[in-house]
Each structure stands twice: as C-alpha cells, then as structure tokens.
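Re: that backbone. Tokens:
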C-alpha cells in the first residue's frame, strides 16, 4: 500500500507494451540481472552503445578516491557533438529539433542543422572573446531556443555552464557568479511570463553592482523584447553582434569523460546553495538512456518537458536527453495558466505532443482551475496525440494522479512518476511505461542499474513496510561528482561518516511495499523544503529574513499545502515590539518582499507569525517540531516540559 492509502494497480496498456523499447517485466528483470552480475560491464556496454566517443574509454569505474568516483575516465567526447552533429550524420539534419512557443503564443522552430549552426556561431563568438575550456559561464535567460543554444555552445568549447533560473533574484545571481568564479554571463533583456515582462539583464547589472563579481569580463545579451537595458561598453555585448559573421562550423573541444559539463546550484540543509558538479560522459549517458527507456522515446514522438532550463529537469529532459536522442521537442517560455489554464492542453492539441512531462504542482493547479472554469478542463481539447505522461519534482497525491490519468491521458497513457534529484542527474526510481504496473503515488522500482534501498540511522536495511532513509548502494555514472569549491561539504552531505562511505544519502525518507517492493517517497528528512517542486533550504530563508534590519531572529518550517505541496511558514521575532493588526500585515508584506529580493519570488513565506520569542529548550535550541505542529494548526500536545518559555506557544498559535 502506498503512503497515501492507494493500492490499486494500473497495468501498462497492452498496445503500449507491444511497441515499448523495454517491453515486459522479463526485459526489465534481465537488465537488472545483467547489472547485478556485472555492474561495471553493464554500464560500459550502455556507454559504448548510446554515447559517441572521440576516444573510447578503457577504464569504467574508478573508486580509488571514493566517494569522488570517476567513470569512463580515459575516454574523450563532446556533449554538443552527441546532441547535434551525430544526429545530422545519422540523417536527421532536417528534422525539427525544437518547436518553441513564447509566452504570447509566437511559434518558432529549428532543425538539427539550424541548431548546430547557431550553437557553432555562438561557440565561435565566445571563443573569440577568450572563453575557453574549464571557464565558468552563467546562463540567466528566458526559456526558449537561445537558452538551449547557450548551454550547447558552452559544451561545445568545454566551458562549464551554470544556469540560474530566471525567477531568482539579483542577489542569488551574484552569489552564483561569485561562487563559480564565472568569466561571462549570458542573459536576455527581459523574459515574458504570464503576460508580464520580467527584466533579466538589469538584474545581472544589479548583481554585479553588489560586488564580488570581478571575474566577469563579458555579458552577452539576447534581445527578446527590446526592453530598456543599459550596456557597459567593452563588457556588455549584444548576442547578435557576438554571432554576426561567425562561421556555422566550430570544432568541438574534445574533453575527458570527467570534465565538468555543468554546475547547477541547489539548496541544502545548511547555509548557502551548493554548486552540484556533473561530469560530461556519465551524465550524458544517463540522460540518454533514461530518455529512451523511461519515456520510451521513438523517432516520431513530439516530446514536451515543461521544466525551465534553470532546473535539473530542464538540463536532462530539455537540453541533453531529448537532443542526444534526436527527438523533436517543445520548449515553452510561459506559464500553464496564461492566457488561461487551458494553455498546456491547447499546446498539446496544436503541436500533437505525444509525451508530456510536468510537475504535480502544475497538475494540482490545473485541476483547481478546471473545477472552477470547466471550459479550461483538458476534456475540452483533443489530446489523442498523447501516449505517455510523466511527473517529477515531488510526491504526487493519488487524487491528482487519477485525474491526470483519466482526464489528460484518457485512461490509456501510462504515467511515469520519476523520483530523482539535481544530484542524481537523471531518473533513479521510476516505472518503465511498457513494464511496470503503476500504483498512484508510488515511483515504483529502480531504473535498471540503479542499486537503491532503505536503511535506518545505523545503516541497516529496514524490512518492507518500515520507513527509513533512501540510499543508493553503488556509485552510478550520472551521480554528482562534488560540490564546487567545497569537497568536504560533498562528503558530509552525501557520504556521511555514519555509513562509512557505503551509501549515497539522498536526504529523502522512503518506504517499500511488502508485496510489490515498490518505493514510495515520504519526503525530505533534512531541512530542505519542496514548494511547488522547487527546492529551498529553511536556513536559506531564515538568513534572508534575519538580513532585514527589523528582524532579530527567525525560524522557518514547512507545512502541507494542497496546491504547492509544502508552504513556507516563518516564525519571526522583531527587534522592536511584536506588531499586531494592520502593523503586522504591513510587516508581513515587507518581509515577504525582502525574501523575494534576497532569493526570488519562489522563496516568499506564505505565513509569517510574530512572537516575542521562539520556543526553545533550556539549552537554547529552537524546537522546530513544535513550530511544525503550530504551522499545521495542530494542538501542541507533545511534551513541552523541556521548553524554556511555554507561554510563547500561545502567541505563535495566532
Ligand atoms: C527532491 C529533489 C528531480 C528533478 C526535480 C527536483 C523530491 C523529486 C520526486 C518524486 C517524490 C520527489 C525529493 C528529492 N522529488 N521527484 N517523483 N516523488 N519526491 O529536483 O530540486 O533536486 O529536488 O525532490 O524530495 O530529493 P531537486
């Protein structure tokens, strides 16, 4: 039984199974058995079959410096070559690579040949400005063809990209530039979302003005809207001028398998966001194999992953996976609710999307919209092109799963509920659509070759039905290599001493079903929140709050929310008097805006409560378990005898 009480099994449709690349449980088990009996041989076989190498590897897994594992270390390749040139060589040059729709509905598309030409021109332009292998480049751009071009141009010349989601604030951009030591920023004048124009280049200017970004020598600006933007001569240059006159060919920089393809910053349980470092070969291999098997990708498919390239989902299942597989895919700039909440369904209908991958939070908001405005319900649209659905980012509640299955998939599309993380590079636990009977709310079984289990705090495996910590017992090719600038934090976070380096610790709780062996993820076990599928650290939000001059102390917890999965609830002690009534409302707004400025709109606390103090133990530790109960509106029946100041609970309950 899944955590949410659903036990119903949904068999993969017979017609789907017949045509699936991995077809039937026997095929899945054969792959798992191959990986079990010869783990490195299995991954080496896949790496030879699915990745195109400039120089073949002879080494597979190198564990000599564990947990800093290496895969295929003596091989050489280029990721952009794998995504572009090799498809063209295979005859796909005139196939549409990207179909793009902007916020306002404008359509554009590029073929593989055209995409290669544009990537090469930008790559040459970047090289001409001195950007070279190993340099870090920040990409802070609107979602569109150019964002993908920017990533692949970096990969072409061996530069390490670090994409920053356009919703993050100037301060966040500054921190990432600073930590990465970036030499260049690629940005857009403005991005459009939900009919609004949001300035990006001005935010980069603000980031630079904050200081600590002295490494940045070049800022390339793509003109999306023609919005006002100040250009600093010699540093700032228009994208069009960078690519003008550049040849449409560019020799790829052949890099070692372990050369970092990108850094992607994500939140941890302590302090500042960490720069997750991914390799070129291992990462690319998993991007390709999961795209082929989890999404059963076929040449005629129209693939659409709705994620922004600012997140790992956009890296693996917009840029690298689909393109390396020669797919035609949709790229969308806007939001699911503009001009109305039928936008996704309209786009699926118009572009005949066959594989659709989105987040539970989007599904829940579209369920709500369809309930209030029946005209935007998916059943009003012709969604017959769909053959497979996917979800990612947070647990999907069975009610949302069933709605998605019946109303979007028409009861005939398998749903792949894919569990993975920024750090894992690609899918870890997921159904294979032509194999796995589905249970709403369960991500089911490990991807073939992924060795996962559940242990208790001592590292002992727990019996089925008993919750514990989700761990991976063997290194896998697409795993995080290190945290940029902080290898110690890498070890501490993922290979803590408690487990003597035996397990990769994901930071999630999980439970396995006694009969099916299926995994259900029960949520984070650390101080990481998941708000609308976006990952945020409680400490990160707390430090944003205490950076406001009025705030003396703050504690942040998550509470369940029907729409966003989790909502941020902040308990704040001001330096002055505890505000009430209108003054409180005004301060709430001010603090919310302050957090948005420090991190980004996604980090705004939904609730802010004021107290003269926070509940603390006699030794001065904040009792978060009490705060979590208060945030949920539960009566705090727990033992409060260790509490230094019990009266404070009454104040914070309000
Ligand atoms: C955390 C990772 C994976 C790309 C997007 C998020 C949660 C992710 C699922 C799922 C239950 C999920 C976990 C994980 N999560 N997918 N299918 N079921 N939980 O990447 O920002 O690195 O967040 O998202 O808690 O640890 P991320």
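Recovered sequence:
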């Amino acid at each position: 039984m899944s955590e949410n009480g659903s036990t119903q099994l949904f068999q993969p449709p017979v017609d789907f199974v017949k045509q699936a690349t991995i077809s039937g449980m026997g095929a899945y088990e054969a792959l798992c058995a191959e990986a079990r009996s010869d783990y490195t041989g299995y991954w080496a076989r896949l790496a030879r079959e699915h990745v195109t190498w400039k120089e073949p590897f002879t080494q597979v897994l190198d564990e000599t410096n564990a947990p800093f594992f290496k895969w295929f270390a003596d091989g050489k390749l280029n990721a952009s070559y794998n995504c572009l040139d090799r498809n063209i060589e295979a005859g796909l040059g005139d196939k549409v690579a990207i179909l793009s729709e902007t916020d306002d509905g404008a359509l554009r598309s590029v073929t593989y040949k055209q995409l290669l030409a544009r990537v090469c021109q930008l790559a040459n332009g970047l090289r001409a400005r001195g950007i070279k292998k190993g340099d870090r480049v920040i990409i802070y751009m609107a979602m569109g063809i150019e964002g993908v071009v920017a990533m692949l141009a970096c990969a072409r010349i061996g530069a390490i990209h670090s994409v920053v989601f356009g919703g993050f604030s100037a301060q966040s951009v500054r921190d990432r530039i600073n930590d990465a030591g970036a030499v260049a920023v690629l940005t857009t004048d403005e991005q459009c979302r939900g009919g609004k124009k949001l300035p990006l280049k001005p935010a980069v200017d603000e980031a630079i003005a904050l200081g600590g970004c002295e490494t940045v020598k070049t800022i390339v600006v793509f003109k999306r809207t023609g919005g006002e933007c100040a250009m600093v001569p010699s540093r700032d240059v228009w994208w069009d001028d960078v690519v003008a006159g550049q040849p449409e060919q560019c020799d790829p920089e052949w890099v070692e398998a372990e050369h970092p393809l990108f850094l992607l910053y994500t939140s941890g349980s302590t302090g500042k966001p960490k720069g997750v470092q991914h390799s070129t070969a291992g990462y690319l291999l998993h991007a390709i194999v999961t795209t082929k098997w989890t999404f059963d990708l076929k040449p005629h498919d129209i693939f659409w992953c709705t994620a922004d390239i600012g997140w790992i989902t956009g890296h693996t299942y917009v840029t690298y996976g689909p393109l390396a597989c020669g797919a035609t895919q949709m790229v969308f700039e806007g939001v699911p609710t503009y001009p109305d909440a039928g936008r996704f369904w309209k786009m699926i209908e118009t572009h005949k999307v066959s594989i659709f991958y989105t987040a539970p939070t989007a599904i829940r908001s579209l369920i709500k919209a369809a309930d209030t405005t029946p005209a935007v319900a998916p059943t009003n649209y012709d969604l017959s092109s769909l053959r497979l659905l996917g979800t990612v980012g947070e647990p999907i509640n069975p009610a949302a799963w069933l709605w998605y299955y019946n109303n979007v998939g028409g009861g005939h599309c398998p749903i792949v509920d894919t569990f993975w993380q920024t750090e894992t590079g690609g899918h870890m636990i997921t159904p294979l659509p032509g194999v796995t009977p589905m249970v709403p709310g369960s991500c089911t079984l490990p991807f073939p070759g992924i060795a996962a289990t559940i242990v208790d705090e001592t590292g002992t495996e727990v019996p089925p039905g008993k919750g514990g910590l989700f761990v991976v017992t063997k290194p896998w090719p697409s795993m995080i290599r290190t945290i940029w600038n902080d290898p110690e934090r890498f070890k501490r976070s993922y290979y803590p001493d408690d487990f003597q380096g035996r397990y990769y610790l994901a930071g999630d709780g999980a439970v396995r079903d006694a009969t099916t062996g299926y995994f259900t993820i029960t949520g984070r076990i650390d101080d990481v929140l998941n708000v609308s599928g976006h990952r945020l650290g409680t400490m990160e939000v707390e430090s944003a709050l205490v950076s406001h001059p009025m705030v003396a102390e703050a504690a942040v917890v998550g509470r369940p929310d029907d729409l966003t999965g989790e909502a941020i609830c902040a308990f704040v002690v001001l330096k002055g008097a505890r505000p009430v009534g209108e003054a409180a409302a005004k301060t709430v707004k001010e603090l919310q805006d302050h957090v948005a400025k420090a991190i980004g709109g996604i980090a705004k606390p939904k609730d802010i409560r004021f107290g003269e103090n926070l509940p603390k133990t006699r030794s001065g530790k904040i009792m978060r378990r009490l705060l979590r109960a208060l945030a949920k509106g539960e009566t705090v029946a727990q033992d409060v005898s260790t509490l230094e100041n019990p009266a404070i609970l009454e104040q914070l309950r309000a």
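The first strand starts at residue 61 and ends at 62. Residues 266, 311-313, 392-395, 417-422, 443, 506-508, 521, 524, 530, 535 surround WT7 (CB under 6 Å).
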